[in-house]
Write a structure and sequence with these properties.
The protein contains two helices and no strands. It is rod-shaped, with a radius of gyration of 35 Å.
């Protein structure tokens, strides 16, 4: 059994593939967090609309100032949450862009190493062909010498 050592490029290509998968997993996690934050922001927007409408209904009729004050206070709290969610979403977008960049870099590295692996295989094939040609020439020379000695 003729077992050749694994070229270093193949090992590096496997490592690059693992790194790419790891970066993709991290990007997926960030994208999931981004979707969750966007959903939370959408829910807050809906709550703001709903409670603003309720406050307008209360203000349109004779109302209790304590009740209207409670609605206003709650709306202010919703705005604060909405603002924090917006800031969080902005930070997540930065992390997301960074993660996308890392995926691109890892993908480029994987492609580069894949090309190097292909070149190494081509080179091994060429070396094998040269070696086979030399073996064939050596055998032909031996046959020629044997045939020329025989009368």
């Amino acid at each position: 059994m003729n077992r050749q050592p694994t070229p270093v490029w193949e090992i590096l290509a496997v490592k690059a593939d693992k790194a790419l998968r790891r970066e993709k997993c991290q990007l997926d996690a960030v994208l999931h967090k981004q979707r969750d934050t966007q959903n939370r922001q959408h829910k807050l927007d809906n709550l703001l609309i709903e409670y603003s409408n309720r406050l307008n209904v209360i203000l349109a009729r004779p109302h209790n100032t304590v009740e209207a004050g409670s609605y206003r206070q709650f709306i202010v709290q919703l705005y604060n949450l909405r603002e924090r969610t917006g800031e969080e979403l902005s930070e997540i977008e930065k992390v997301c862009n960074s993660a996308k960049q890392k995926v691109l870099i890892a993908d480029q590295e994987k492609r580069k190493l894949k090309r190097l692996v292909e070149r190494a295989h081509e080179k091994l094939g060429q070396e094998r062909n040269v070696r086979e040609m030399k073996d064939i020439e050596a055998q032909n020379l031996i046959h020629f010498n044997l045939n020329s000695r025989m009368p």
